[in-house]
Amino acid sequence: MPAMAETATSHWPFMKMHGAGNDFVVIDGRTAPVSLTEPLVRALSDRHRGVGFDQLALITDGDDLTVTYYNADGSQSAACGNATRCIAAREMTRNGSNTLSIEVTGRGTLQALRNTDGSIAVNMGQPQMDWQNIPLSQDVDTLSLPLDRSPVATGMGNPHCTFFVDDIDGVDLGTIGPEIEHHPLFPERTNVQFAQVIGPDHIRMRVWERGTGITLASGSSSCATAVAAVRRGLTGRKVQIDLDGGTLHIDWREDGVWMSGPTAHVFDGTLTHEFLASL
Description:
The chain is α+β, with helices and mostly antiparallel strands. The chain folds into two domains: 12-124 and 263-277, Roll (Diaminopimelate Epimerase, Chain A, domain 1), CATH 3.10.310.10; 152-254, Diaminopimelate Epimerase, Chain A, domain 1, CATH 3.10.310.10. It is 18% helix and 38% strand. The longest helix is centred in the N-terminal third of the chain and has 15 residues, at 81-95.
């Protein structure tokens, strides 16, 4: 467990960002030394008593820009595509560049770029499709898991379980999501997606994220769903994915799974000494 949170000042700056409604607190640890505890992350994630977020991102120094992600329950996440795009957008604006390398703890170096339309793209790397790398608890067919509705398992640095359904609005995501997240087949828990194929290049998706719950969007989940759809022969490798919070575009290329979409830097704020001392 990391040491209790400390800063060089009595106020702790942070940024609030979102990508298609998938929202984040971003803390730049390059400006002041910061360490995190699970109780602190959980307190910050509280939308009534804290700031509120789906994930928290901590930026630190490294050969490239280095980021560590945390879920709302305080656990670490190895991948967060929308947060990566948000951070890339800010850094590219600060640096006056259109490309950026980001070192993501547990996932490796990801490449980001600014598209000509102003949207931000990130290469989330190659998917994992072998049961050991996702990981699963046993050797099963990852294209048709031994669960009701035969979902697809995919790794994008974090595990994903994708169900393809005919009526996405009829899915009780709040009940099924946590059941699948904690299923014994997933030793590290899993993100859960329900997807309805609209056409060969169009998917509607809803998502339950491990350690957080229902979210308006998820970048890694969108990548995993696109990969699962290609493997099932349901779509091409380039798809539009409509989520509750907006639209993302996924392109599974030879060099990895690229994801593009909108980003927003909503506001900057500070955590007070009073809040930090209360934890």
